[in-house]
Amino acid sequence: MKRFDAIKRIVETIDDEFIISNIGFPSRELFGIKDRKNTFYMSGSMGMATPIGLGLSLALEEKDDDRKVIVIDGDGSLLMNFGELITVFAQNPHNLIIALIDNEAYGSTGSQETYASKVNLSDIAKSIGFKEVYYIDARNSTDNLNMNDYVDKEGPVFLHVKVKPGNSDAPIIDLSPSKIKNRFMKQI
């Protein structure tokens, strides 16, 4: 399976959860699969999807809102802002799921290889102290990726999904950044 298929599997079983999506092709693919007002599509801020998701999850906890926040992040973005995992662990939000789609490539800029081909990002999350860490090798099958298995877990959850590199023919997001932000904020 490629990233598109993993994103499709992630969103097909969700309900009122918030989604923060990584920049570039992941956001475009998610938009093409299932556009929702509860989704925030990143544009132009590589490495910031997880920190934004963390901020939202902490704000929801403060309001006693039990909705989950799912961050669809990529290996290249995570490696660019690696301190985010330490910050998530230190803040310990119970309602955050990081769904790391790891294709070992910078898919939005030409599919250059990332260092995720040399290190296991799940092992790093475990070494930081994450208790809920799951690794799914989905390169050859989509059968073992079901968000229902993770949404009810006490977070933070680190779901590492290894996929094959490659982009789909995803549409351009025809919403302005202001429109994306404003409609998302109304859901909060």
Question: What key attributes describe this structure?
Answer:
188 residues, alpha/beta, Rossmann fold, six-stranded parallel beta sheet, 35% helix
Characterize this entry briefly.
The chain has 188 residues and is α/β, with parallel strands linked by helices. It has seven helices and eight strands. The chain is globular, with a radius of gyration of 15 Å.
CATH C-level category = Alpha Beta
Distance between the termini: 33 Å
Low-confidence stretches: none
Tell me the number of strands. Answer: 8
Mean pLDDT: 89
- The class by helix and strand makeup works out as alpha/beta
Topology readout:
Layout: H1 3-11, E1 18-21, H2 25-33, E2 39-41, H3 49-62, E3 69-74, H4 75-80, H5 83-91, E4 96-102, E5 105-106, E6 112-113, H6 121-128, E7 132-137, E8 157-162, H7 177-187
Parallel strand pairs: 1-2, 1-3, 3-4, 4-8, 7-8
Antiparallel strand pairs: 5-6
Description:
It is a single chain. The chain has 188 residues and is α/β, with parallel strands linked by helices. It is 35% helix and 19% strand. It has seven helices and eight strands, in the order αβαβαβααβββαββα. The protein has helices at 3-11, 25-33, 49-62, 75-80, 83-91, 121-128, 177-187; strands at residues 18-21, 39-41, 69-74, 96-102, 105-106, 112-113, 132-137, 157-162. Strands 2-1-3-4-8-7 form a six-stranded parallel beta sheet, sandwiched between helices. The longest helix has 14 residues, at 49-62.
